[in-house]
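Customer escalation, tier 2.

The customer says the design service returned an amino acid string that "doesn't look like it belongs to this structure." They asked us to rerun it and document both sides in this ticket. The original structure tokens are below, unchanged.
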């Protein structure tokens, strides 16, 4: 086969054409003595070119020929390869797909004979046939050799297309069953006394139990043991444990022939911490009392495979009824979905995009979706009780639990992904679910799947397409048939029965499934374009509603919004086309009462939830809000109309803020929940405070304009106090303010005072008029002399009062004072007036400190509601808002004159400044900040959930669960939330005791 220098031989060119990538090396192998008799036979080259990796197949064939014991054996092998097409395709197909099986054949050169026979009975062997192949294995090494010989025959049928992927997986499971039986027999033969003491059953779980095993996979098992007749139970269980352990070692340990596969018993009760072998009664007791949802999900695939067959059947019979009750457990769907999310979250970031099994759009998505539906509907439909994913999917489609088109797409995708997984593992016989990155590996993988034209690009395209199908369908699979139950279906399409729909809705957490079905019917029935779009949206929305504590309310609210906006051209288009809008809406509508109530009064605010140019959910600045409100007031016909416009803007912006808070707390598919809870608190406090200030500015302008035009006879300013001045307002907070005025030159003080009082009176009236918009209550009780003092004072009057009469509590209250509306110069001078009072040059005397402590103690005892649990009161309880704020404010009063950073109205900023100044340790500052943020979040959550303000956790279980979801606690973890709050508050109270009551 030599050619002239500088010229390629014709063989070299033929090799490239047949798919060889290293034609030079292939030429050398073909020129070797092993292939001399057949080197020019075109049949051989064509057969090699048909394999997944011709280079690998040729090398494996040469190694196999080299390993033959003599010339006669080599000649027999070559003659059979050339003459017998079935053997040729099988042998070369395996050698081109699996380097590991090529190594096995090189070590055991006669095993190629296992591929010669091609009788019908050889095409689909079962457990009995595999047991016959393994029966002669007298030790673990021989068992490995026999196992690989059987594996060789399965791989040959697989790569040649004699069996499809589901049959391959079933044969691998049957081979595993036979191997477990052989290993147990070896263990019993080595310890006959143990075998005589007990009955031991091996239950296959996972993929082995489901008849869908991979080439290389852990074989999951559970062991059940009982004493033999007359034997002591304790001794019998110890004997059974020794047998089970030895059986696992026989399969798992590495020998000169490698290992078979690990036997994994960690799905047993209590996992690794539990006994390896339990009695049947102990298993039943555990599952009745302690088992988690995922453990029942795992039992779907339980199947007795080895040992005492009667005991194995008794195990399945005893536990299967419990499996089909799992869907009745509280938070069942949420538990299953949370387990799936946890699996995805634990994938290393560098592997997510290559994960064939666990990643988004991977095999596990299909398996979880199918198992979820089995557990919900298998209670009443025994046809769904299959351990096989594909068989279960087919049964779900036949019963109308899944749409036929969806099931067909998922079946196709699952088969393709499993085929990829099989061929990836077959190459080295290593346990992996990662798609390779190397060009050569991808090329071999693509060719092994029949993709011969541009195999790498085609493989990537097909893989991404199937993964995309799975991603798109795996969650909708659960919800879409609910719509088919109330919609017109195509002829021949099975329908989810009313009872099955009710079961599914109950499993999702809907308290009133009948009402939910009525809403679905109203939204999705009919042939209009609107109904068609709703049928597309609702499967996803139902899942998002179910992820909340109030799925019924979410669906009802969505129907109300859709009824109000369904005829507008932009509404459904927004939800369909704007990536975030639909999920944001679902979160907002099912998170409580406040946000939906605000939205229902003006449903067009849905537009804020989109990704477009409307500003989205970002709170708008005070300047922007003032500009809009003042423009609306100028256009209005009178003060009442102007304030109505201002209140409308306030309602819309309250909704924007609430929606941003909810979405930030829950997170979305594209944007995880905000990790910095302090940032969410600051967002709400700043946005609501800015909005309140802008509303007051607009109301002031409207009242002054109607009564006096542009010439109010006195300068007028509004001073924010308390949380308002501190930029920390919550959704339900009143606006604590002081009113200050100063007559313009030449105006009588009485006239000025009368005008100022009229302005205040009219502002309060207009902001509280009952309407569709929430009222804004103005509270001026922090003014000098409290409720007994005048509502409005001149700047000189404030100065005289504070100089002669001010009490410690008033100086304390002034720490939060900040101009929020009205005359800027007057507000600035008011601030200059009070600064020496709130930041005294000499600090605070001990008498004043004692008075503040006394006031605080009295407030705690007098204002805490009767019957309230102090430890859970977010405002007045130990470690609550009051504790943190009074501690920080005491530091401001004592050190504010010397530390400029403390001269702020904001609690968190003052706390940070105190830390920077060395007045409080970083640890204590962190403890107080954490408690203050948490208490503020609790108050915000209560308002969002109940629609009315509150300082304690709700007692209603659903409302408490909704507060938990807002705070990041999943279903069923309300108790954990309360415990965490108590711990946080207790730590903060310890710091308060030291700094406020006991520190210097």
């Amino acid at each position: 086969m030599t050619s002239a220098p500088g010229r390629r031989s014709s063989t070299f060119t033929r090799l490239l054409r047949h798919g060889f990538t290293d034609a030079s090396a292939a030429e050398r192998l073909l020129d070797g003595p092993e292939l001399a008799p057949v080197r020019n036979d075109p049949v051989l080259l064509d057969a090699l070119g048909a394999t997944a990796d011709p280079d690998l197949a040729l090398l494996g064939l040469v190694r196999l020929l080299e390993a033959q014991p003599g010339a006669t054996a080599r000649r027999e092998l070559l003659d059979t390869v050339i003459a017998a097409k079935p053997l040729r395709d099988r042998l070369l197909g395996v050698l081109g797909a699996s380097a590991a099986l090529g190594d096995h054949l090189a070590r055991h050169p006669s095993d190629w004979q296992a591929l010669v026979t091609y009788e019908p009975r050889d095409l689909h062997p079962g457990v009995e046939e595999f047991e016959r192949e393994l029966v002669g294995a007298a030790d673990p090494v021989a068992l490995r050799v026999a196992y690989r010989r059987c594996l060789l025959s399965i791989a040959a049928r697989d790569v040649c297309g004699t069996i499809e992927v589901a049959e391959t997986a079933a044969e691998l499971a049957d081979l595993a069953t036979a191997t477990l039986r052989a290993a147990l027999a070896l263990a019993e033969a080595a310890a006959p006394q143990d075998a005589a003491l007990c009955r031991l059953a091996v239950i296959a779980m996972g993929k082995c139990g489901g008849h869908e095993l991979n080439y290389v996979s852990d074989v999951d098992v559970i062991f059940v043991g009982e004493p033999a007749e007359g034997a002591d139970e304790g001794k019998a269980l110890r004997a059974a444990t020794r047998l089970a352990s030895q059986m696992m070692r026989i399969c798992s340990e590495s020998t000169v022939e490698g290992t078979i596969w690990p036997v994994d018993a960690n799905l047993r009760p209590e996992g690794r911490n539990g006994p390896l072998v339990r009695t049947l009664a102990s298993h039943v007791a555990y599952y009745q009392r302690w088992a988690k949802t995922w453990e029942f999900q795992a039992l779907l695939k339980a199947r007795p495979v080895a040992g005492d067959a009667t005991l194995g059947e008794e195990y399945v019979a005893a536990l299967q009824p419990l499996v089909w009750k799992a869907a009745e457990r509280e938070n069942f769907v949420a538990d299953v979905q949370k387990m799936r999310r946890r699996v995805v979250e634990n994938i290393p970031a560098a592997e997510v995009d290559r994960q064939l099994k666990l990643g988004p759009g991977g095999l596990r998505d299909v398996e979880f979706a199918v198992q979820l539906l089995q557990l919900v509907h298998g209670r009443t439909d025994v046809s769904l009780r299959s351990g096989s994913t594909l068989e279960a999917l087919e049964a779900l489609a036949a019963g109308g639990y899944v749409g036929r088109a969806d099931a067909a797409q998922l079946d196709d995708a699952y088969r393709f992904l499993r085929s990829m997984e099989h061929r990836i593992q077959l190459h080295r016989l290593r346990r992996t679910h990662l798609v390779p990155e190397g060009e050569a590996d991808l090329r071999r993988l693509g060719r092994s799947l029949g993709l011969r034209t541009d195999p790498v690009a085609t493989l990537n395209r097909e893989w991404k397409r199937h993964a995309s199908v799975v991603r798109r369908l795996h969650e909708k699979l659960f919800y879409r048939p609910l719509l088919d139950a109330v919609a017109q279906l195509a002829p021949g399409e099975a329908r989810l029965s009313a009872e099955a729909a009710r079961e599914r809705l109950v499993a999702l957490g809907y308290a009133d499934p009948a009402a939910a079905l009525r809403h679905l019917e109203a939204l999705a029935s009919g042939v209009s374009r609107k109904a068609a779009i709703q049928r597309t949206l609702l499967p996803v929305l139902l899942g998002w509603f179910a992820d909340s504590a109030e799925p019924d309310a979410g669906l009802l609210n969505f129907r109300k919004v859709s009824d109000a906006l369904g005829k507008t051209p932009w509404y459904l288009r927004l939800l369909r086309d704007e990536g975030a809008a639909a999920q944001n809406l679902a979160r907002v509508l099912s998170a409580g009462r406040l946000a939906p109530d605000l939205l229902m009064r003006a449903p067009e605010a849905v537009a804020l939830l989109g990704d477009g140019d409307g500003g989205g959910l970002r709170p708008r600045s005070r300047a922007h809000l003032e500009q809009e409100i003042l423009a609306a007031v100028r256009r209005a016909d009178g003060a009442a109309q102007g304030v109505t416009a201002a209140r409308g803007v306030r309602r819309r912006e309250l909704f924007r803020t609430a929606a941003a808070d909810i979405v930030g707390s829950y997170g979305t598919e594209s944007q995880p929940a905000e990790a910095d809870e302090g940032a969410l608190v600051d967002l709400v406090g700043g946005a609501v405070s800015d909005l309140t200030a802008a509303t007051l500015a607009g109301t002031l302008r409207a009242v002054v304009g109607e009564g006096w035009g542009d010439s109010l006879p006195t300068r007028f300013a509004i001073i924010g106090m308390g949380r308002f001045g501190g930029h920390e307002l919550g959704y339900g907070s009143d606006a604590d303010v002081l009113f200050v005025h100063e007559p313009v030159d030449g105006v009588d003080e009485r006239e000025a005072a009368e005008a100022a009082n009229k302005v205040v009176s009219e502002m309060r009236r207009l902001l509280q008029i009952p309407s569709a918009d929430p009222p804004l209550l103005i509270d001026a009780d922090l003014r000098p002399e409290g409720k007994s003092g005048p509502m409005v004072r001149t700047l000189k009057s404030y100065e005289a009062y504070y100089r002669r009469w001010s009490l410690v509590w008033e100086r304390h209250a002034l720490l939060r004072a900040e101009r929020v509306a009205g005359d800027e110069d007057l507000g600035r001078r008011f601030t200059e007036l009070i600064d020496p009072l709130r930041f005294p040059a000499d600090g605070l005397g001990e008498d004043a400190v004692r008075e503040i402590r006394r006031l605080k103690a009295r407030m705690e005892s007098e204002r805490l509601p009767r019957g309230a649990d102090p430890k859970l009161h977010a405002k007045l309880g130990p470690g609550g808002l009051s504790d943190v704020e009074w501690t920080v404010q005491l530091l401001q009063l004592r050190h504010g004159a010397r530390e400029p950073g403390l001269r702020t109205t904001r609690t968190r900023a003052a706390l940070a400044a105190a830390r920077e100044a060395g007045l409080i340790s970083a640890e204590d500052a962190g403890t107080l900040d954490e408690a203050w943020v948490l208490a503020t979040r609790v108050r915000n959550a209560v308002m969002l959930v109940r629609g009315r303000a509150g300082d304690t956790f709700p007692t209603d279980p659903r409302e408490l669960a909704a507060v938990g979801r807002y705070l990041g606690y999943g279903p069923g973890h309300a108790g954990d939330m309360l415990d965490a709050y108590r711990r946080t508050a207790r730590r903060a109270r310890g710091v308060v005791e030291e700094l406020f009551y006991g520190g210097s």
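Tier 2 assessment: The sequence is consistent with the input. Residues 677-708 form the longest helix (32 residues). The chain has 45 helices and ten strands. Sent an explanation to the customer and offered a walkthrough call.
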